[in-house]
Amino acid sequence: MAVDQATQALLDMMSGAFPDVSTLEATQVRAMMEEAPAVPGPEVMSVIDRTIPGPAGEIPVRLYRPALGTLSTILYFHGGGWVIGSLNTHDAGCRALANATGSLVVSVDYRLAPEHVFPAAADDSYAATAWVAANAKELDIDPARLCVMGDSAGGNLAAVVALMARDQQGPAIALQVGLYPVIDADLTRPSYVENAEGFFLSTAMMGWFWDLYLSDKSARSNPYASPLRATDLSGLPQSHIITAEHDPLRDEGEAYANALREAGVTSTNTRYGGMFHGFFNMGAFLPAAAQAFDDVTSVIRKAFASEVVR
């Protein structure tokens, strides 16, 4: 499906506001992200910033509670190629997610590359998930209704946390949700060629992110870096993966969903035609994004039988 006029206009605006990050230093890109104007998110009953114990020190997290009562929980890992992004860049999306699913959303500010290379982000994400499960009573959550979720590199971390939890007999994760996730370090798939540039995330950018996160290409086959390389995907939680037609990451996300099904895991996936990487929280501008948000939050509510908070 071709990109429509409204979507192209949005892509042109984003391209003008954000140059090719692969030509910049990580600190420059982070500053641009933090300074960029953002649409504020909805009000949530409570939003609390705190820190929790991590493998290399305290991990900042932000807790979005939409209602009283014992809630389901979503561990949310932000995107940004393991290099950029923060609690603030994904604040509006997490607010909307909490209200739409009736879940406590715990946004995790994991360590970033290149200051902290693989597996720092994965280790922090798993530690946060384990801490939330272990402190279910204090948080007033149901430990049997736990979801790991993320966009792009955050989707990678959600998949990795699910693997780690299975391998280490850790928290019982009920659901994983990946929004156009990074699942493999192979940058030669057809979607990387078809969408190499012109659709916000470029193939060159993905190479830059991987080089900063895990420069040793021979180590990228580690399943905790490239979950699709895992020799066994059985025993993982139910999953839902969304992909965008014009996204370099499209093929690996869909390959992951297929591989999960082949391993006996309940896995659904939806490709959104005419869309590009990062579209999910742009429902105010793109009808397909609003539909994707409704679709994903419906999957989560159905899995946890939870209610929308109005």
Task: Reconstruct the topology from this structure.
Blueprint: H1 5-17, H2 26-35, E1 46-54, E2 57-65, E3 71-77, H3 91-101, E4 104-108, H4 120-134, H5 136-139, E5 141-151, H6 153-167, E6 175-179, H7 190-194, H8 203-213, E7 238-246, H9 250-262, E8 267-276, H10 287-304
Parallel strand pairs: 3-4, 3-5, 5-6, 6-7, 7-8
Antiparallel strand pairs: 1-2, 2-4
Helix pairs in contact: 4-6
Q: Could you walk me through the main structural features you see in this protein, from its secondary elements to its overall organization?
A:
The chain is an alpha/beta fold. It is 37% helix and 21% strand. It has one domain (5-304): Alpha/Beta hydrolase fold, catalytic domain (Rossmann fold), CATH 3.40.50.1820. An eight-stranded mixed sheet has the order 1-2-4-3-5-6-7-8, sandwiched between helices. Strand 7, helix 9 and strand 8 (267-276) form a beta-alpha-beta unit. Helix 4 (120-134) packs across helix 6.
Brief synopsis:
With 310 residues, this protein is an alpha/beta fold. The protein has 10 helices and 8 strands. It has helices at residues 5-17, 26-35, 91-101, 120-134, 136-139, 153-167, 190-194, 203-213, 250-262, 287-304; strands at 46-54, 57-65, 71-77, 104-108, 141-151, 175-179, 238-246, 267-276.
